[in-house]
Amino acid sequence: MNFKINIFALLILSISIITISVVFWIEFYEKINPCELCLYQRWPYYILIFLSIIVLLIKNIKEKIFISTLISIILSISFLLAIYHTGIERGIWSSITTCSDFTKISTGDIDEFKKIILDTPIARCDLVSWKFLDFSLSNMNAILSLSLFVISIMLNLEILKKRGNKLNTK
């Protein structure tokens, strides 16, 4: 079981690093600014990188199982964020967040205020700025997060089943 959890952690680590690398590539090399929700969708991957490294470093199987469960929770949150953003992009519902933040501007000079506004890139949450095969990044994130979530649930159910069998044989 330890082997399967480690393989799962390597899968999560690899996919999370690739995902973050791709979105940074799109942002910095393709010059496409992320909206507020796009930035929020990165956080689960940062956390997944951290948790998967911990799983690979610790030896205690109970701790690995606990962190594997946390990974499942983070993946479900990632999926929900992606679905929420997808719904906004498709006009199913409207966002409860603002897509650009001018509230932190602290100037009294109207010319400087105008320059700050004009120089601030605005990325709207309801407009898709990058697609691949007609899928936005939030669509792809929803598919990826759901797939990884299903894999994590299958692993956790297998762990529970094996641990239950060990308790029944004692």
Number of domains: 1
Strand-pairing-aware structural class: mainly alpha
Give the total of beta strands. Answer: 2
Distance between the termini: 19 Å
Shape: elongated
Q: Radius of gyration from the CA trace?
A: 20 Å
Strand percentage: under 5%
Largest sheet: 2 strands, antiparallel
CATH class: Mainly Alpha
- Count every helix, treating DSSP H or I runs of 4 or more residues as helices: 5
> Average pLDDT value?
81
Strand order of the largest sheet: 1-2
Weakly predicted, low-confidence segments: none
Task: List the helices and strands in order.
Answer: HHHHEEH
CATH architecture: Up-down Bundle
CATH topology: Bromodomain-like
Offer a concise description of the structure.
This protein is an all-alpha fold and 170 residues long. The chain is 71% helix and 2% strand.
Which features characterize this protein?
170 residues; mainly alpha; Bromodomain-like; two-stranded antiparallel sheet; 71% helix
